[in-house]
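From the methods appendix. Each design record in this collection lists the tokenized structure first, followed by the designed amino acid sequence. Records were kept in a plain field format so they could be parsed without special tools. The example shown here is representative of the layout used throughout.

RECORD:
FOLD TOKENS (262 positions):
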């Protein structure tokens, strides 16, 4: 049986967490504290499936994010703590928060005030890049990290389970071209089973389709990663680092775009 829930962040500002890859990262969760709101329902989502519901706290307002982030940054600064990056992630898709564009402006202003050397990163599933205000906000941050898990329609629908039928690979690749040279495309590599169907975006055909999409999009960088924590679909298997690195080299050779493997 799929688990109802894996791990939720129970606050709007969380961390800081230390990682070898990002350094010291402070998280911003624009989704509820006790539920999930997303336009995808990925089989690997660490926050669990959408069926758990949106919880009771609602989406945090622009004012709430600003106040809580100011408090946290001011506290960290007076304690002499370091900060490398402010990262938007959390219990769902950050760009679904209607205050997202204003929140980006506030977060950039607070970063400039307290930690001008820190970066601002947004992890997005790319479903809202067609909305002008969202795309403009994404262009303002240092790292907009845009999801593309498969360039094969059937596989993308199986892995990401988009809630809208209008979201297609063809459309998102077209939209992602607007971030050519600036966006970072992030691809989750995995294999296993879901709903009686085989899930595997590491086959030569899948990687060829991704290479063709990356060549069209021309992102600044490509990030490949695999499973890390427990997932709502339990019949998924991690792609180990040596294999990820091999796939990464193939993509880099074919596209000339830098591939980072995590
Ligand atoms: S896009 Fe992110 S938050 Fe949404 S279901 Fe997928 S992994 Fe979870």
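DESIGN:
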């Amino acid at each position: 049986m799929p688990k109802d829930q894996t791990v939720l962040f129970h606050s709007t500002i969380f961390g800081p967490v230390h990682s070898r890859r990002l350094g010291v990262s402070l998280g911003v969760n624009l989704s509820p504290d006790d539920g999930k709101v997303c336009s995808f329902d990925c089989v690997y989502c660490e926050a669990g499936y959408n069926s758990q519901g949106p919880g009771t706290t609602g989406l945090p307002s622009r004012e709430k994010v600003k106040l809580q982030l100011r408090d946290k940054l001011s506290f960290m600064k007076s304690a002499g703590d370091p900060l490398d990056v402010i990262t938007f992630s959390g219990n769902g898709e950050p760009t679904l928060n209607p205050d997202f564009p204003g929140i980006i402006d506030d977060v950039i202003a607070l970063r400039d005030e307290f930690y001008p050397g820190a970066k601002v990163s947004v992890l997005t599933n790319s479903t809202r890049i067609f909305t002008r205000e969202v795309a403009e906000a994404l262009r303002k941050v240092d790292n907009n990290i845009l999801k593309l898990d498969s360039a094969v329609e059937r596989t993308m629908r199986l892995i990401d389970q988009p809630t809208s039928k209008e979201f297609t690979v063809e459309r998102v690749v077209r939209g992602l071209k607007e971030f050519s040279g600036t966006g970072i495309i992030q691809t989750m590599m995995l294999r296993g089973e879901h709903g009686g169907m085989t899930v595997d975006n590491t086959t030569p055909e899948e990687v060829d389709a991704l290479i063709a999409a990356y060549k069209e999009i021309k992102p600044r960088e490509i990030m490949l990663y695999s499973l890390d924590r427990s997932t709502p679909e339990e019949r998924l298997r991690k792609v180990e680092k040596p294999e990820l690195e091999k796939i990464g080299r193939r993509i880099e050779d074919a596209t000339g775009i830098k591939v980072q493997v995590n």
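APPENDIX NOTE: The radius of gyration is 18 Å.
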